[in-house]
Amino acid sequence: MKPVTLTTDRLLLRPFEPSDVPAVHTACQDPAIPRWTAVPTPYGLDDAERFVGTAVPEGWRNDTAYTFAVATRDGGTLVGSMGLVRLDRLRTVERQAELGYWTAKEHRGRGYTAEAAGAVVRWAFRELGVERMEWLAEAGNEGSWAVARKVGFRREGTLRAKLVHGGIRRDLWIGSLLPSDLPREPAPAGCATAPAQDPTPYLPHPR
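The structure corresponding to this sequence follows.
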């Protein structure tokens, strides 16, 4: 699929560009990101270059992951990454995809991630024909769940020892979002800034 660009009141969700490499590298130095996501640790500049220059465009080209750079419309500052993964299930009777994201530490607590997530899931339901959106995060990732809950996800339970992270089996929380869970219209401008619980970042992060 050819990459697309989405907009919200405050954000531009666009393809990653080579100029994003330094910001991605800097963001992933935050210990919370490798703790809760699948990014390599330590995270080097070459990892950022592979993510921006190889993993993201290949995901779009091969229809395996649609990953957006989340940037502010006012100034173009990179806020984080938002994407749809496990798209192989989209082409089956399951009609499913999974939402993943991480947010740079200095941009958490402003509602940016929920605002971006709302735009991506609406696009996925409307344009891609997704019928069920899943969210998964390691058990204990309260920040990620706060964002998912605000978007409308309903938690369905815990998958015991589902994830292997750092050589250790860990439990996963799972939630789902259906088109009928969304309001007819997006929330009014400004509502996305309410909670101060923007995420501890969330898996996965394509490599």
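Residues 45-62 form the longest helix (18 residues).
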